[in-house]
Amino acid sequence: MADEWKFDVPTVGSKQLPPDPRYMEALTSQGYGFEAAVADLVDNSIDAGANDVVIHFLRDGDRLVSLLIVDDGCGMTEDELDVAMTVGGRRDYQHGALGMFGTGLKSASLSSASAVAVVSRTKTSRPAGRRWVMEHAKDGFHCDIVEPAYAQSLIDRYSGGSPIKWNGTVVRWDGVKDFPRNGSLEQTERYIARIIAKLGMHLGLQLHRFLTREDFNITIAVEDITTGMVVTSYGVMPLDPFGYPITGNQDYPKTFKVENAEVGVVSMTAHIWPPKSSIAEFRGIGSLIETQGFYLYRNDRLVQAGGWNNFRQPEQHLALARVAVELPSTSSDVFRLTVKKDGVEISPEFIAALENAADDSGAFFATYVADADTTYRDARKRAGVERKPVIPPGKGLDPSIREVISEELPPLIGEEPIVIKWQALEGDAFFELDREDRQILLNQRYRPGILGGRRGGLNDAPMIKSMLYLMVHEVFQRERIGPRDKDNLQMWQSVLVAAARAEMDRLSDRDGE
Ligand SMILES: Nc1ncnc2c1ncn2[C@@H]1O[C@H](COP(=O)(O)OP(=O)(O)OP(=O)(O)O)[C@@H](O)[C@H]1O
Ligand SMILES: [Mg+2]
Question: Looking at ligand 1, which residue's alpha carbon is closest to its atom 30?
Answer without folding.
Answer: 84
